Every structure is written in structure tokens, then in C-alpha cells.
Amino acid sequence: MAVVIFLFVIAAAFLVVALVGPYRLYWRARPQAARQPSDAALAVGRVAAFGAAGVFVFGGCSVQAGIDRATWSASEVREAAEDAADSMAADTQIRRDPTDGYTSLIKAGVMRAGDDQGPLYRVSVERAAGGGHDYEISAGGAATTVCMHVTEEKSAEGGVFVPGADGGSSSSIPEYDLTATVDDGAC
Hints:
Strands 1-5-4-3-2 form a 5-stranded antiparallel sheet. The chain contains 5 helices and 5 strands, in the order ααααβαββββ. The chain is 46% helix and 25% strand. The chain is an alpha+beta fold. The protein is rod-shaped. Strand 4 and strand 5 form a beta hairpin.
């Protein structure tokens, strides 16, 4: 952040030079008898000062954008979690690993929803203690954690048909309709 402030201070100094004009600054520092620069030279100096100010403003904005891309804000984490909850409800799901629950599905949804909001490798989804379907979602740089509560209900569509090995028997793996709610804070 100090670099951004420094770049904007330098840009402000060049902007002052451009607005006040090099002629006034030049003659305050030099005696009247000195050789005067031409009007064209002063105009070029003013344009150069505006150009330098623009370069430093662009640099400051670029550094700030880089800082913003490297961290998540609390609202970005919540928004990505809500988008992941909506995407989970859109399709039926097969029950996941009992120890993992829906952790990998939620993490993939949050990463997909938060694609341009922060570094994806800093997304963390942890299953809350107690064995239910509560998940704590956090991301690097964000000061808060959100809690996603997932409710599963057997789908009316049935399940995935699995043919038997002997060709005659068959079974199906049940599918579930998921609904999820997102709350601020830990679970």
C-alpha cells in the first residue's frame, strides 16, 4: 500500500508542475537576467509533466489492482459461497464420501464462482465438527468466514442405474437434491 501512495504522491507533484507551468517555477528559481527558455520548450515541459503524472497514476492503479487480485474481501467470499450454493441446487448429486461430505463439491463451486475475485489456491472449505453438513468457507486475505449448511433430500428422479455383473441383476445409486444456505461467521 505504501508503494501505491508513493506513486500517487509523485503523480501529484508532476501534476502541480504541469498546472502551475514550468515558466513560473523556472523564473522563481533563476534571476531575471538569465537566458529565457523558448515558449515551445516550456510547452514541451508542461506536456511532459502531464505525461509523467499519467504514467505514475497508471502505475499506482496497476499496483492497487494487483494487490486486490491477491486477496479476497469478506463480501467476495460470501458472494462466491452463495453462487456455489445456487449451483449445487441446480443439479442432483450423488452422495459423496462420508468423511468428506460435500467439501470438494463446495470448494469447486466457490473456486468457479470466485474466478476473478482472488487467488483460487487460497480457498479453504472445512467440514464443521459434529458430522452434519455444515461447512466453513474462508479465503486468503478475508477477515471473515462464512458457514454453509447443506440439506439433502432424495431426488424424485430416482438415481443412477448400475447394471449387475451377471447381466441380470441391477441396482441404482440414489441421487439427492441439495439446498444450501450461507450465513456469516463460523458454524
